[in-house]
Structures are given as C-alpha cells and as structure tokens.
Amino acid sequence: MPSRKFADGEVVMGRWPGSVLYYEVQVTSYDDVAHLYTVKYKDGTELALKESELRSQSSFKPRKSQSSSSSPSRRSSSRSRSRSRSPGRPAKGRRRSASQSREHKDDKKKTIQETSLALLVLVVFKPSENNTKRYNGEPESTEKNDTSCIILEQKVKPDMEIKRVLEQYSLRPRKDDKKKEEIYSERKTFVAVKSIEKAPSKTKELEFGGRIGTFMMIFLLPATVFYLLLMCKQDDPSLLNFPPLPPLESLWDGRVFGVFLLWFFLQAIFYLLPIGKVVEGLPLSNGRKLQYRINGFYAFILTAAAIGILLYFQFELHYLYDHFMQFAVSAAVFSLALSIYLYVRSLKAPEEELAPGGNSGYFIYDFFTGHELNPRIGSFDLKYFCELRPGLMGWVVINLAMLLAEMKIHNLSMPSLSMILVNSFQLLYVVDALWNEEAVLTTMDITHDGFGFMLAFGDLVWVPFVYSLQAFYLVGHPTTITWPVAAAITVLNCIGYYIFRSANSQKNNFRRNPADPKLANLKFIPTATGKGLLVTGWWGFVRHPNYLGDIIMALAWSLPCGFNHILPYFYVIYFICLLVHREARDEHHCKQKYGLAWERYCQRVPYRIFPYIY
C-alpha cells in the first residue's frame, strides 16, 4: 500500500476540480481504500481530492499581476495593455546585446506558448468569474448568472479560442508546421481538461445502510405494506395478533391489474394534455434546465369528473375495498417492472444525466436509489409524473372508496364523523400539493434522488396504500367521536397546515425572487453559492418548519381513529422517522454545499424540527 504524502492538518495547495486553479486547503483526513484526501478550503467547502491534485506550498512561486489568481478586472486591463504594445518589445532607449537578445527571444517564445495555453483554459472555462469568489468565501452573483456562464462555456468553439489567442499573442508569423503542432497540442489539453470537468463523481457515501440495507429494504417495504393491510382486516389488529397469510392465488387478479393499468395510463393522458403553464426546473450539472408542464390541478379536476360520471352510472366504487390487497399487489408488481426498466435504460444514459446519489457502481444500491436522475421518454418525465399523479390522486380515490364502503357495510345514511375528518384533512393536503405543484421541482426527490425502486414503489404503492391506512382502518373498526373532540382535532390540523404552507411559501418566494419588496423584512446569511439562508420567519424558528407542520398534520389524521389500537398511528410514527432521516440527509448535503455559512446558520437556528426539543 503506497504511503501518504501529506499529513492530517497540513496546509497545502489543492486544485479545484475542473479548473487549473490551486487554492490553499487544509488536509482533514485520508481514505486508505480510495486513496483520497479530504481537504477543507478557507470558505469551509470540503472536497475529496487525489494526491496528484495536491501540491506543497513551497512548489508555488509568487506570480506577477497577470497570474490566474488576479482579479478579473486586472486580467482584462492586462490584456488590453498587451494589445497596444507587444509584451516582448523593449522600452525606448534600451539596448541589448546579441546574446541577451537571443536569450530574450527564447524566453519570449516560451512565455507566448505558456500564456496562450493558460489563457485558453481561462477563457474557455472562465474559472475566475465564479470559482475564485467561491474559494474566497464570497457569494456568487446569482444562480441565473452561473447558468448563463455554463451555457456559454458549452457553446464556445475551441478552434475559435485557439485562433484568437494565437493571433493576439503572436509576435511574428510562425511556420505552418509549428502552428499546426501548437494547435494540436492545445486541442489535446482542451479536451483533457474538459473531460475532467464533465466527469461525474461516483457516489462515495452510501445511504440507507449501503448495499446490505438497500437489498433488505427491497423486500421489507412490500412486506410492511401487506402486513399493515392484513392487520386492518383483523377484528383485533393488535401487534401481537399476527394475521394469517392468505393463499397466494388469491393475491392476484388479472382484472384488478387491468384496472390499475387503466388508471395509470389515464393519468398519463391527463399529464400530456397541452393545458397549464410550462416552467423550467433548477439547473442540472451541465447547466441545462428541463421543462415541466404544470397541470396537476387540472388533471385532478378531470379525474374528479371521471369519478363523478362513474358514480352517476352506479359504478360500485367500493370494489376497491373488496379487492384492496389485490390492488396493492398489482401496484407492487408494476412498480418492480418499472424499476427494472428504469435501471436497464439508465445503463445507456450519458454520465452527466446520472443521479448524484445513485452512481455508486453497485447494482443493488443504484437499482434501489435510482441510477438516472431524470428519465424521460421524449418530453414525458417519468419521475415527475409518478411523484404527484397516479399515487397521490389514487390516495384520494381510495379514501372515497373507503367512505362509501363504510356506509354500505354499516348501513349508514351518511359517513361517520371520523371518516369525514380523515377524508377532509387528506383531501386538503393533496389539493394543496397539486395547486402548488411547481414547488416540488425544488425538492430533494427531483433535484438529487434518482428514479429507482425507492421512488417508484413509494409513489405507486406506499403513498396510496399506506397513507390511506386510517380510512381503511375505520371501515372495519368504526370509531365515534364527539363534536368538541372533532373541533379540537380540526384546529390542530389547521395549525399544522398553516405552518406547513406558510413555511414552504416563504421559502419558495425567496428562492424565486430574493429582491421582492414583500420579503424585505426577511434576514438571511449569504453563501458562496449565491443563495441565502433565511434566519427570520419560520426558518429562523427551526431549520425545517415545513417538517414540523407535516408531523402535526399527520397526528391530526390519526386522532379520529381513537386510541384502541396503535395501528392507525403507524403513519405518524413512520412519518417522524422519515422526516428525521431526511433532515439528517439535508444537514449533510447543506454542510457540504454551504460550508461555513451553514455552520453560522446552525448557530443562529439551533433546533432542527421540534423547538426546544430537537
């Protein structure tokens, strides 16, 4: 095993990936397996670099004002001065000997070659405009400017840049063979540096328990869904009363699977309708922005109209309740088939389109977390479609089916108060998500996580069949609550919804237009990425106030089921675990992304989700 060259705590010069600039860094740790140094820049940014990307400080000599570390204004002024007088022309009244002239010409020739190559890299990649500020801890101008720079870099032709540099710094016409040789060498340098910049980094830190954890979750998640549904069918759904397993042949029904496919493709048709506005998502790693059609609320109205027509023609919607387990099995089979298709197609996807969290090189892990970030068939975005359409709207339809089943089984003229509360609360939640559909484009599911088994199973199976657990429970275990209790639960749900919606709106408005006069009262900590971290309003109360509102609402959804069994409270228990885990993922990513600014934010806002508790 090769010995390491730099020790922990040593201050060296580290190259920023994708550029030729070196900055002062401190070695924090060393990975003996991957042979990578973890280094920390002055602004708090932590990166993993190879030993070849690190140099001792003694190897760097002080440069003149035309070095790459000088400010853009100095470089531009230097370039403008060089156009007026050649850098090799002697001052007036100065004489040189023949030997000095020859030496000067040799040095001049070498300087021209080095200068043209350095300026080529600087002009094409423009590291000085953004990277230098980032290392110095200064905020970038705006996210929009960063994107425009990236797009400009992609459009620059290397041949034009080479020609411009050679014409600008040539002192006299060169021989054709030497010019071709220099252009060829510079082209090779351009391609090499560009390939380094575009090479995506492998996922080094595995989540969800790594390969073993993700392998177990592929089986554990479906087993949990089926266990919960079987428990709800029990007369005594206590944890110690394990339900008997039904015959395997009873779990599959071709007609049920056909109904599920009809539902899925009906939502796909609604998604493709040319109604609603088209917006752009956040910039990808290559600077490109994908377009999304925002028509989820219109699709919900069309779905409600379709359900109303079925009920008008006396379609028995409680068919869902009678075949609930078979629908869950059909959805699980479809999500597994979809996950296999997604992974196979991701093997041919360009590397820049792979998910940053699902590019580990391990089959099971990438299959579970999702290998490709935004898989699309033409303009049809599979992940974005599944995120809000078939599962979320299916949740509302299942709740309605449970309400009708309760009335039929118990011979009620109207649904119970508990069932009305559960349906109303969850309907409000779904309508709010579809009305504010554009906000989902900034979530971790869209920007970071790939589309694999985790999201496919979660969107198509977990959301509609686990989130509707309270309504399914109330059909077989009716619970009577008084009006004062119902009023108190309603107030609790309204508080949670107000925190959830106002916190998300505050964040989304600030992201869209930080200079909005309506947000002038909000204070924030600037970061090296150009974004600000809010330290007033809800985001100065706790770091994730939207999670706090979500948990309060989850509790309000479970309370109408009473306290006879813990089963209807599975959702709120699971949701707390989910959000605490997601908060930990957010903390890790934000610390890497924002560096010292995130540490200052954590000092200003010490509580993560629950004020004065956690």
From TrEMBL:
Residues 55-75 have a biased composition (Low complexity). One of its GO terms (cellular component) is endoplasmic reticulum membrane. Residues 76-97 have a biased composition (Basic residues). GO terms for molecular function: Delta14-sterol reductase activity; DNA binding. SUPFAM superfamilies: Tudor/PWWP/MBT (SSF63748). CDD domains: Tudor_LBR. It holds the Pfam family ERG4_ERG24. Coiled coil: none annotated. Keywords: Cholesterol biosynthesis, Cholesterol metabolism, Cytoplasm, DNA-binding, Endoplasmic reticulum, Lipid biosynthesis, Lipid metabolism, Membrane, Nucleus, Oxidoreductase, Phosphoprotein, Receptor, Steroid biosynthesis, Steroid metabolism, Sterol biosynthesis, Sterol metabolism, Transmembrane, Transmembrane helix. Its EC number is 1.3.1.70. It is a multi-pass membrane protein. It is found in: Cytoplasm; Endoplasmic reticulum membrane; Nucleus inner membrane. The chain crosses the membrane at residues 208-230, 250-273, 294-313, 325-344, 455-475, 481-500, 521-542, 562-581. Residues 4-62 form the Tudor domain. It is an enzyme of class 1 (oxidoreductase). SMART domains: TUDOR. It catalyses: 5alpha-cholest-8,14-dien-3beta-ol + NADPH + H(+) = 5alpha-cholest-8-en-3beta-ol + NADP(+); 4,4-dimethyl-5alpha-cholesta-8,24-dien-3beta-ol + NADP(+) = 4,4-dimethyl-5alpha-cholesta-8,14,24-trien-3beta-ol + NADPH + H(+); 4,4-dimethyl-8,14-cholestadien-3beta-ol + NADPH + H(+) = 4,4-dimethyl-5alpha-cholest-8-en-3beta-ol + NADP(+). PANTHER family: DELTA(14)-STEROL REDUCTASE (PTHR21257), DELTA(14)-STEROL REDUCTASE LBR (PTHR21257:SF55). This is Delta(14)-sterol reductase LBR. It comes from Grantiella picta.
